[in-house]
Amino acid sequence: MESPVIAITRHKSGFYEWAIVYRNELVDSDVGYSSISTCLSSAADGIPDDAKMVEVRYRTVGMGTFPLVALIEAPEVIADSIADLYGELLNKT
Fold first, then answer.
1. What is the pLDDT of residues 8-54, one digit of tens each?
2. Do 6 and 20 form a contact (C-beta atoms < 8 A)?
3. What backbone torsions phi and psi does residue 46 show, to the nearest 5 degrees?
4. pTM, rounded to two decimals
5. Owning domain of residue 87
């Protein structure tokens, strides 16, 4: 089963946007969030009911697939993981 995707874009420090894509269709999006964790928390509310897992992309880079319940219950933990992974990827280039 295909997982929905939360794509997070950082426009500048403290200004983020998220979009949910599911089955090649834009489901929802919003802009003006202050952090990755606030994007995850808000976007989790728009995930379709039949989804159990959610793929997360940050700045077009796949960051992993996570249980929806984890996005709802611990968005800060996942956001920290995403920031760390993205930082590591930048340092390797």
1. 999 999 999 999 999 999 999 999 999 999 999 999 999 988 899 99
2. yes
3. -100, 5
4. 0.93
5. 5-92
- In angstroms, rounded to a whole number, what is the distance separating the alpha carbons of residues 64 and 83? 12
Angular region, 65: left φ>0, alpha ψ -120 to 50, beta rest? beta
Looking at the structure of the chain, the number of domains it has is 1
**What pLDDT is attached to residue 91?**
86
User: Which residue's structure tokens are 């997982």?
Assistant: 3
Burial class of residue 16 in the structure, from the number of CB atoms within 10 Å of its CB (0-12 exposed, 13-18 middle, 19+ buried): buried
| Phi then psi dihedrals of residue 88, to 5 deg | -65, -40
pLDDT at 79 over 80: yes
